[in-house]
Amino acid sequence: MLEHHDHAVLNQFYSYPFSSDEVFQQGLSGILAHTSMNEVLGTERSDLILKTQVFYFNRATGHNLNLEDLQAHYTADLDRSLPRGNQYTRASSETQHGEAPNLTFAELKSMIEQGKTDNIPNNKIIPDTLNDAAPTRSNAPVRKKPWEVASQS
């Protein structure tokens, strides 16, 4: 389990720019290219990406973070309903500037499982009914058949 001073390492991990790190993206694409999509689906794929992120983060920063530390920190934060140092915390400052927060797959999955879909940014409720309005008439001219076009030339 992580000590109190090690939460800075977790915060550094959560804020690491994996999506803009070209070396990481190249390595990840190589790993994903070598794993068959039949072998790795859904949560297994996200676990593979998380393991790759932890490995790369440790190599790039010299830290010794492991998956158990992340899971313990994430579980403890879920119990408090507002995780420290991850994207929920950053999201509160981003929404003040009018931008929607970016949620990780794990955060999105957790919110759906907890029934907090109203907290998901840009989540629209689509009614389960058909459109009651009358259909509109087409204003486009009827397309000519190939033999009609050829005879006009």
From TrEMBL:
It holds the Pfam family KPWE_dom. It comes from the Eukaryota. Residues 8-73 form the PEX14-like helix-turn-helix domain. Residues 116-153 are annotated as: Disordered. Residues 102-148 form the Peroxisomal membrane protein PEX14-like KPWE domain. This is Uncharacterized protein.
